[in-house]
Specification:
about 425 residues, Rossmann fold, 4-stranded parallel β-sheet, 8 strands, about 55% helix
Length: about 425
């Protein structure tokens, strides 16, 4: 890395030696999983570049924006409305939470049987490894699970923390609670940035975020073609980077990639043979660099053609209604759109079961793999219901529970290979 980056990381108080070691491991991991693929799209070169510079050039952009007076807001969850963040002239980024960084330090302040994602974002902070966290003027949490909710109490000692209350049901009273939280977040952003969220700014921000969702919807439609023209790993990477990259630039680049995909489809060029088993990956979110399970799946003779997760259709399926003209009308539209999210935190949650079955049929999958992070209770409970619902619709499912370590790779590989063999047409 350049001396300029080293000085920047030093200024952010990163542990330089540990950070260099992390980037070295990440680079090798990325090479093995992504760069080893055959017949990749030329458009993926941009994603490769972004990932290679995710702690470099992107952080430099954030620092330059901060010098000009912009604020940086870090998030862990798709419930935090980026539309409001952008309308306040702030930048919203996802935070590091996809590797076993600083695990030992994290376990000093949260129980060992806490899910890997929570221990990861705490570990990255305590080990001083995440320049995104160190760049934040505000970190926004949300009450989507008890583990996060309690962890934020401790995490708030180390970062400027703000927590949004997410309702657990979707009755009229729950919508009112959620609207109150949206308005409270709006007030917080205006206080943080010193900028008033106007109708003009909010309308533009809604269009920007919707455009990002539209291009990911376009990508999902194109990847569903038989034979699929892009690997599931590459689509996962695109979705992951959507949380870090500048939204306007990202949308432009992915539209260009989709143009390339359309050309491949016209030429009937797939990345795998037409009879390759098609799988839907469902369940918990996968933050960078959590690529273990998709790599195992596609290394076992199948292809992932859809993700039913926060790093997938749960994040991109619904748009905010763009017809509102006043701030009040647009706030109502944001409230409605975000309450359509079918997170496992809701009870009851028939929506998610219906959406999984609908998606599995729409994508013509041969099976579903439900991914659960160890100790994630909401998704573990729903896994049982989902398997039953899929069986009733003649769709096989394999439930996988794992964490970020590599210790169970061979065991997972054996189970996935057996499942792939079973669902092979």
């Amino acid at each position: 890395m350049s001396n300029e980056y080293t000085k920047m990381w030093e200024k952010l108080n990163l542990d330089l030696d540990a950070h260099d070691a992390l980037l070295e491991v990440l680079g090798k991991f990325y090479g093995d999983i992504y760069l080893s693929q055959q017949n990749r799209l030329k458009g993926m070169e941009y994603l490769d570049f972004v990932l290679s510079e995710v702690h470099g050039l992107r952080i430099k952009e954030l620092q330059e924006a901060k010098e000009k007076g912009q604020k940086v807001v870090g998030t862990f969850c798709i419930f935090v409305p980026e539309e409001l963040t952008l309308a306040a002239n702030a930048i919203q980024v996802g935070l590091c939470a996809g590797a076993e960084a600083g695990k030992e330090e994290a376990e000093k302040i949260v129980p060992r049987n806490t899910c890997a994602l929570i221990k990861s974002f705490i570990g990255f902070k305590l080990a001083r490894l995440c320049p995104f966290t160190e760049s934040c003027d505000l970190v926004v949490g949300e009450t989507t699970c008890d583990g996060k909710k309690k962890a934020y109490e401790t995490f708030g000692q180390y970062v400027p923390m703000y927590v949004m209350e997410v309702p657990q049901q979707k009755n009229a009273s729950d919508r009112e609670l959620w609207k109150t939280e949206i308005l409270r977040y709006k007030d917080k952003l205006e206080e943080l940035t010193g900028n008033k969220i106007t109708a003009e700014k909010l309308k533009k921000a809604i269009k920007t975020v919707n455009d990002k969702r539209r291009v990911l919807q376009r990508l999902n439609k194109l990847r569903a073609v038989i034979p699929t023209p892009i690997s599931g790993r590459d689509v996962l990477l695109i979705n992951q980077i959507s949380f870090y990259d500048d939204p306007v630039r990202f949308t432009q680049k992915i539209n260009e990639l989709c143009d390339e995909l359309e050309e491949k489809i016209k030429a009937s060029q797939g990345v795998v043979p037409e009879n390759t088993p098609r799988l839907l990956l469902s369940g918990c979110p996968m933050a960078v660099p959590n690529w273990k399970l998709p790599y195992i799946i596609e290394g076992s003779g199948a292809v992932v053609v859809g993700e039913e997760s926060c790093i997938g259709t749960r994040n991109t399926r619904d748009l905010v209604d763009e017809s509102g003209e006043s701030v009040e009308e647009m706030i109502e539209a944001i409230v409605d759109r975000y309450l359509k999210i079918d997170c496992a935190c809701f009870t009851p949650n028939q929506e998610r079961l219906d959406n999984i079955i609908s998606l599995a049929k729409e994508l013509k999958v041969d099976g579903v793999i439900h991914y659960n992070l160890l100790f994630c209770q909401p998704y573990a409970h729903e896994s049982i219901k989902i398997e039953k619902a899929l069986q009733e619709n003649g769709i096989p499912m394999l439930a996988i529970e794992t964490d970020y370590s590599m210790e169970d790779v061979e065991q997972l590989k054996t189970r996935v290979e057996a499942f792939v063999e079973m669902v092979t047409p």
